[in-house]
Amino acid sequence: MSNPGLLDPDVCYRAVRGKDSRFDGVFYSGVSSTGIYCRPSCPAITPKKSNLSFYRTAAAAQEAGFRACKRCRPDTAPGSPEWNVRGDLVGRAMRLIADGVVDRQGVAGLAAEVGYSERQLNRQLVSEVGVGPSALARAQRARTARLLLETSSISISDVAFASGFSSIRQFNDTIKEVFAATPSQLRAGAAHSQARTPNGGPRDSVKVRLAYRAPMNVRAALDFLGNRSVQGIEEYVGGTYRRSLILPHGSGVAALSLAESSAGAGGLAGFVECELWLDDLRDLTAAVQRCRRMLDLDSDPLAIDEQLARDPLLRPLIAASPGHRMPGSTDPNEVAFRVVIGQQVSTTGARTVAGRLVAGYGLPLRAPVGSVTHTFPAPGVLAEADPADFAMPVSRKKAIKALAQALADESIVLNPGSDWDHVGQQLLALHGIGPWTVAAIRMRGLGDPDVFLPTDLGIVKAMAALGQPGDAKSIETYSQVWRPWRSYTTHHLWAFLDSVNGQTSRTTSTAKQKGRS
Fold first, then answer.
1. Do residues 384 and 504 make contact, with C-beta atoms less than 8 angstroms apart?
2. What is the pTM of this model?
């Protein structure tokens, strides 16, 4: 039995026998008698245990010669929550592969991003997930191709190159091998079941359903992002959150909204509706992955809630909002600037200042969508800007300039593959950036699951309202029982404070901690 990453076959088989969707995306089962691979929750009759082998990724199952099940569609399962929170080499590499780095820069580029040789990287990935970076990227290209075939009407040859394949022949061979169908058959099979957007030009949209593990308070996640929206790059209208995207081959706009799904009826899976307008369809993979990361769709809410609910203090908060996510970002650089801008000012004030930067230095979109008209200013642009144009105190102007220069010359790199601890130390060395700022960047920009903000005014007020000491040292000490999910506790406490204040959003979050001058 193939067993990369030391999967326990007994545990895996119990999950398959129980049709447990909590394990969808965590592992895949290959059925030797049929030659297909499935997600654990596949509704088909459970095969004999002797006919099953288990794999950490769809790519490993494909590499072993299995094709995707047409019934349970394992290629559309939520992403593995493990890679989303691991800070080691494999976790960082998996996030970068999901972002499309191998398609853009090759395996050598991926290795350079994580600071290892190609040989070391390949050895680590094969040991953990059963295949190397090329096979993982190939599986992702196949998923993207299927998405375009089934949701758009662009030509099949354009689908091939938009999804990252280097030739039509490679595209055709891969699709047939992975899905046991030709590209034309996949498109024809989807025609009767779902409408396709026209995609006749660069500004037509692609509609995607982003799967997640239930429970999830989707509305709370969208509210969090929408209530902090910056004019020009974001809007929140009628329950739909829209924002601009800076992507490898151009810009784009994403619209995210709540979708009706089985999760609403107590199921274990759900979807977020996502509509994308892209300058270049080659950016589809990156756009989808960044939207998933922004909404924290690949986390494991049951595991997180179970751990946090062990603390009697948090138990009522977990019960009030099960599956509460940790909203992130599509651009860590943007988050870093916005966190620095937001030091010691209200959320409303920070939005206003950031909006002025967008208006003055942001790049206009080719075709705006609603009131989303620009992308956030690039670090190089802000590095060259006149600090006199920044409506903020002198010390914060210096911090913005120092951060912009470091990001522009890449002495600091913020991306899904960044080492959280290393980047944190680099940021602390910059003028005007202190521990509160670094922690907020790690949580919102880089997705670190174990960040806590004991000096944040909202956290202090929430802990006091829960009957706990309000000083930062006591709060930090108490927070140790919430490891390794303190970032999620932070969001639960902010939401609790909203409910105490009778607000729909946390609008007065400030930091007591000053940035280091």
1. no
2. 0.89
